[in-house]
Structure prediction request, 1047 residues.
Amino acid sequence: MKSASTLMGATKLASPPFQRANWRSGFGRQPITICLLVFAGYYLGARIGFSLTFQPHPVSVLWPPNSILLAALLLTPPRTWWLVLVAAFPAHCAAQWQSNVPTSMILCWFISNCFEALIGASLTRYFLRRPLRFINLREAGIFCLCAAICGPFFSSFLDAAFVRWNQWGDDSYWQLWQVRFSSNVLAVLVVTPFIVTWATGGLASLWKANRKRELEGVLLLLGLALVGAVSFYTLGPESDSALLLLPLPFLLWAAVRFGACGASTGIWIVALSAIWSAAHGHGPFSDSSPEQMARSVQMFLIVLSLPIMFLATVIEERATVEETLRESNALNRGIIDSLTSLVTILDRSGFIITSNEAWRRSHELEGAPTPGIDVGANYLEVCRRAASAGDLSVVSVLEGIETVLSGERIEFQCEYPCVTPAGSLWFEILVLPLRSEAGGAVISHRDITQRKAAERTIRERDARISLAAESANLALWTIDLERNESWMSDQGRAIFGLSPNEPLTRKLFFARVHPEDREEVYNAMELARATSESFEIEYRLRRPDGETRWLNARGRYLRNASEEVAELICVAIDVTAQMKANLELRLQRLEMARMSRVALMGELTASLAHELNQPLTAIASNAAAGRRFLQQGSLEPGMLDELLVDVVSDARRAGAVIHGIHNFVRKNEGERRAVDINETIREVLRLLHSDLLGRAASIETRLASTVPLIKADPIQLQQILLNLVMNALEAMQTTPMAERRIVVSTQCFEDSIITGVRDFGRGLPRDDLDKVFTHFYSTKPGGMGMGLTIVRSIVEAHGGKLSAANTEKGAQFFFTLPIMQKCEMLQST
Amino acid sequence: MSMTPELVCIVDDDQSMRRSLQRLFKSAGYSAEIFACAEDYLAREVFDGPSCLVLDVRMPGLNGLGLQEALEPRGAGEQIIFLTGHGNVPTCKQAMRKGAVDFLIKPFDDEELLGAVRRALGRSEDYLIKRAERREARERINKLTPREFEVLRFVITGLLNKQIAAELQTAEKTIKVHRGRAMQKLGAISVPDLVRLTQRAGIAPAIPSLRHKARVSA
Prediction:
């Protein structure tokens, strides 16, 4: 307990809560124990007191009970003092009754004893404000003043008054007072410190003492006992009074080595032996009268004990301070040693004041930066020598240390490599100025090999990622939304057309996105932000130099610990080349389809000419007829009107045919809209009308009565039908005229429309039906063989399927096309 | 130009063609009837005046050429003008061989068509007249007995009665009697009359089997 209190900062730092705790912990036992102890102690003290009375003098030289009571009061909190007094009363009564003292006297004495103890304890407590422990001079002084002097001083008045009042004895008031006073003072000085010191730590330290100390203690006790016996017992009154000082060395030894506890114990022993010897007629005091003897002994003991006590407390104080210092040092040592870096402290000139465990152990590491540099060596010298020996990294370190020492810099940091047999290590040296009046520097070397390795790994990984990104033409970028920072890979900057230092912001990003794609990109990103999923979008980029590039980008929003959106990471690949290729391919396909259509038209030329001829001829005839009537003067308005109506309708008809041809063969973008397939079939048959006649084939239509709209390109749809019907006609070239029939049918099935073109010709090759769909397969002399291939690709592009089958006589081609959905219909309007 | 009624028949599957042609012919003063298909025309009763047929080659069902063939046996003598959208040499050859008046390619000049119609109607009239004449001649000749007919046939070869008798192995007198009666029945005055009549009727002279001296006709 004593060490704990000293550690916590001896005199200056004791705080009230701690004080309170101390009261409790110091004597935190239950009231019962206190009562018992007080009772026992008081009784025992009384018995001892009785035994130390110089007969026939009624006053004992040393009356312990008061001091015991005082000690009890000093050791317990004020609120339990009443308990102490209550416990002491029976002991007091018990002790005094045995000595035939009148009851009133007993009571009076009890009152005065309590008074003395109370005064002493209250005053001490008031001035001290914390438990008494005899740990420094101030405490000892206050104790002496308040408890040893004031208490007895004031209580002696009362005591003497009581004695006179009870007429116990026949001494005068002042005699009584003197006797009482000196007796009480001695008792307080001898007994109370003994009890207090033992109670507040002496017992604890007894447990903690090691063998040596125990031995020492025992020796001391023996010595004291011996000396006591010698000086107070064996020596007579005629011997040299200087021998009285024989116990002094032992007492000093006790004070120095065992502090207040030892000193008080020693004093107690000396007092006991002196008084006991004198009481039994031995020793240097025994030749006087009992009163004189008492007084001499008391004086002697008081004079002896006071300085010893003061010395003891000074020693305690010093010991406390030393202890504090030692512990503080140990703590600092512990701190510095627990650092894993190699730490050393230099003074202003570069000499090493101290270094830590790691530093010292680094001797064992070969190649470590601090071989064999111990406390006292000059670090700067060592560095200079290493520098001149050729170690270049040391030069900058040396300069750094020197500038920190001189105060030019407030910090120096440097990383340097070290080659050891174990491998190449990296260290970091940090030099900081030492914050003390003497100046100096704190140097620490830290092994950063792992950190360097990690850094290198990260660098390599970054390099790999960059390389991969470069080779794949990837753009990588991140935007930290919390800190509003961004990073973009070099490749990304090149793709986006950003200069190397231009920061990427959301605004800048959207400025680069093609205006038509901005909304789609924004929506996709916002959806991903809300749902925490990754988004994938394709959009066009418009670079500052005007070039447009296609990007396929993927990104994700990352969330931080509090589930808020913190960062956006994106990766984008430049797919312009592929897009361009796709576009070209598409254009080529369209061109192919167009060529096919042109070829079809070519095949129909004769029929088309006929289709145009009919209306033209009719118009010519009508016009000639009209002129004739006019010349004859017999042109009636009604007839003229009829005539002109016919002319107009024929002109329209011709125009329609021309339009039809033109539309059919022109470049077609493939725009799809809602189309009625039955209507398209009828249009195509009208177109083929004369061709059918020419080949003497009859055509039969079995169209579904109502057919839902499909989303298709009307031109391409016509192309399909035309192609299939022409093929059917082609297949029936060798068929007898009467049997030449084509059946065109439509029907709805689930969510698509099935269209069929059936002929009664020679049929398809039996072994491989699909052959007809291959490129360059043609049965027509001079045919390209691309027709069905293109038709199939058109059907499939519309989401349908084209297939062929042989029937009993001839073949049938049928294709499906999906019905237009309501949503598509709403879109197209 | 004859005063008997003439008819132009238009057969074409295209309505506007039909109407415009009808108008044209009307404006030229002809009466015209329109038929949508060959069958419809065949269903019509034969017109007994000069008529011509304006026909489209390409028609559903029986086409123009088919109709031409179908009309031959009827012997109505209608003249056909073909109209077509495109010139096809084999078709044209066939049509002309079978006796078409003209083969016009659309779009045609109205004058061309009307000229063809005129020619066609003329031919038709000629045909009808010839047919009537033949009928009439045939009727007269049918009044003869077979023997008389036989003798007639030798007479128009220019043989003497004697030679005819030798041919027919009868007496000359018999021949004379037959000849006289024939000429009386036929109302011919001279041998050339007989010749013209038989020519009109389309009766060929007999071929003498014996060799005879050439004889100058009296």
About this structure: The interface with chain A takes residues 14, 16-17, 19-21, 23-28, 58-60, 63, 83, 85-86, 106-108, 110, 113 of chain B (CB under 8 Å). The mean pLDDT of chain B is 85. The longest strand of chain B covers residues 51-56.
